[in-house]
Amino acid sequence: MLLRSLQLPRREFEAGTGWQFKPEGACRGDACIPLRAPVGDPVDVAAVAAAIGMPLVGAPEHGLWALGPAAPNARALASAEAPELALPDLDGNTFHLSSLRGRKVLLYAWAPY
Amino acid sequence: MWQALRNELHPRGFELVTVGLDTLGAAGCRAFIEAARPAHPSLIDRHHVLADLFGVINIPSSVWIDETGMIVRPAEAAPAPPRAPGSPPGFAPPADLPQRMREIMAEAAKIRRDTAAYHAALRDWVEHGAASRFALAPDEVVARSRPRDADRARGHAHFALASQLEIDGHHAAAIAHFREAHRLVPESWTFRRQAWSLEKVGDGPLARFWQGPDPARPGAWPYAGDWLADVRASGAENYNAPWRP
């Protein structure tokens, strides 16, 4: 997830990372990591990333940071349930993979290089 | 070829979703997509979220997802469908192709493609669904997805940062983070090929396929490897893992 600031509205952090802040800590599905300090709004991204174990790298001279994907089970897939994928087509219209429920889908990665 | 297969299987509840992984976005993918005129969703992925979300490390590769949204096969090499008998011959290289491109094509021809097994399995799954032996159980799907330790997760963050720096016009800054992504996720061909493709050699149709030092200024190449050197070092036959039923 790309960031232009290390202070991020709580809603954006939750939507971008899949983590949700609950009284018991930062949670993904049923799994929660207790947090020592309550999470504010905006979220202090550096502190929360360190607490949940998400890598944070930055190019502060360009005002840009990136959070790496969480991998609680040390595999690329946390579960076999397909994550939501929302990407634009050539015209910039966003397509949601979940709109194809009811069909078998072959998701095919290619590149023009 | 994929499009013909999609059109054949579409009435049986199948859909193909193609995703172009390219930091250059629509500008990089447009010519290819417009030439294919796809009837299926055709998407653009500037930051390689398919790598983050599904563990894609190479192209072409596929993920199979069933009607309920469960992955039944994680990312794996996806060979093009077999050619129909009597179909016209494929790409014939022009006589004046540079030596490097000839060598790249010779290596590419050695890359493992389990076409018959993969496509028999795909048709079996489309026909039989969950009863197909090629539709893997959820635990097996997770276990077969790529390993992701702390270093690899950090490498993905460097890649996202690099691709956005490139988009923002900070090419030199992007290179440093692409290099970190390559170091931390050494098995990803897409992370490397993406970065190499941004070091265009010339401005002709081969500029992004050169993927290596410019013969006119070889010292300016900013990466540890290049397509030809890396494929030769690992062996073209090892470029794709063997397909597992």
Describe the protein's architecture and organization.
The complex is a heterodimer of chains A (113) and B (245). With 113 residues, chain A is an alpha+beta fold. Helices cover 14% and strands 33% of the residues of chain A. In chain A, the strands form 4 sheets. A 3-stranded antiparallel sheet of chain A has the order 1-8-7, with helices on one face. Chain A has a 3-stranded antiparallel sheet with strand order 3-4-5. In chain A, strand 9 and strand 10 form a beta hairpin. The longest helix of chain A has 8 residues, at 10-17. Chain B has 245 residues and is mostly helical. In chain B, 43% of the residues lie in helices and 10% in strands. Chain B contains 10 helices and 4 strands. Chain B has helices at residues 2-9, 25-36, 49-54, 99-108, 115-128, 138-144, 150-167, 171-184, 189-197, 227-234; strands spanning 14-21, 42-45, 61-65, 71-77. A two-stranded parallel sheet of chain B has the order 1-2. A two-stranded antiparallel sheet of chain B has the order 3-4. In chain B, helix 4 (99-108) runs parallel beside helix 10 (227-234) and helix 7 (150-167) runs antiparallel to helix 8. The model of chain B has no long low-confidence stretch (mean pLDDT 95). Chains A and B meet through strand 7, strand 8 and strand 11 of A and strand 1, helix 2, strand 2, helix 3 and strand 3 of B.
- Major pleated sheet of chain B: 2 strands, parallel
Quaternary structure of the protein: heterodimer
Strand tally of chain A is: 11
H and E order of chain A: EEHEEEEHEEEEE
Query: What would you call the structural class of chain A?
Result: alpha+beta
Shape annotation of chain A: globular
Instruction: Quickly count the helices of chain A.
Output: 2
Low-confidence stretches of chain B: none
SSE pattern of chain B, N- to C-terminal: HEHEHEEHHHHHHH
**Sequence of strands across the biggest β-sheet of chain A:** 1-8-7
